[in-house]
Amino acid sequence: MANNLSGKKVAVLGAGKMGGILLQALLRNGLLAPELTTATVAHEDRAKALSAKLGIPVGINNLQAAKDADVILIGVKPQVVEEVVAELRGHISPRQLIISVAASVPNSLIEKTLDAPVPVIRAMPNTPCLLCCGMTALAKGKYADASHVETATTMFDVVGRTVVVDEKHMDAVTGLSASGPAYIYIIIESLAEAGVKVGLPRDIATLLAAQTTMGAARVVLETGDHPALLKDAVTTPAGCTVDGIMELEEGKLRVTLIKAVVKAAQRAKELAFAGH
Ligand SMILES: NC(=O)c1ccc[n+]([C@@H]2O[C@H](COP(=O)([O-])OP(=O)(O)OC[C@H]3O[C@@H](n4cnc5c(N)ncnc54)[C@H](OP(=O)(O)O)[C@@H]3O)[C@@H](O)[C@H]2O)c1
Description:
Blueprint: E1 10-13, H1 17-28, E2 37-40, H2 44-54, E3 58-59, H3 62-66, E4 71-74, H4 78-88, E5 97-100, H5 107-114, E6 120-124, E7 134-140, H6 146-157, E8 160-164, H7 170-178, H8 180-197, H9 202-223, H10 227-234, H11 241-250, H12 253-270
Parallel strand pairs: 1-2, 1-4, 2-3, 4-5, 5-6, 7-8
Antiparallel strand pairs: 6-7
Helix pairs in contact: 4-5, 7-12, 8-9
The protein binds NADP nicotinamide-adenine-dinucleotide phosphate.
């Protein structure tokens, strides 16, 4: 385990869907050592089941899990963050690092609740982290420095790609890449439905739709070419693709996707949990 998390104790407070995905992926990839990793949830029975599944201690006492940890990952729902962080107040030192994945919770809320100069990083991952093809944006709080960002980047690079942004962009990130998998699933579902409409068996139609989505995304990422140029390369003059594109334009696909991201980002801003 040659990385800058080597030998570090990590506690995941609130190992639900997202916390659990990260925990599972990080353990599976050897970034976290099971003997140095702990987690918490709200319910005893969930704790027992998760402990058996992951092979790490899982409890319901946040302070006990967090007090000796080098890195504390907060994975509870946004409205529970303040309560969980308040349990840690007075017991966390600046040599520890807090990483929160809670949507709409500013770093300042955690910093103020702790009432100590503890480094905090806000992270916004997405569910494809489960298969190590996630997208995470990181924004540092006022006490975090480059080494803390590096630790968080090491962590999230294992489960996909990572970018560092100013905290003011985190609601936009939420609307685009955190909510984004849901939009893409709808697109894949619709393409598969279309395949069925033109006579393909459903399983083949779904495979064609999903692999085509992944292939197009990889070409964008790996060539760095503008998507419009890549689209032009598929569009033969007087061919079939241009007829399909005309339908997309008439159905306002572009503006609909833009509005979806704008609305989700606005909602993330509305939900913002103000620092005191
Ligand atoms: N889902 C996504 O795509 C996504 C993407 C980016 C960020 N996030 C963020 O991830 C966070 C969690 O979302 P989720 O979808 O993973 O929710 P979730 O599945 O409900 O997970 C929340 C977890 O927190 C535990 N919990 C509740 N109160 C607790 C407490 N006082 N102490 C310790 N643990 C406690 C729950 O325990 P029990 O299991 O025992 O109830 C549960 O395991 C949210 O802040 C969300 O904004 C989610």
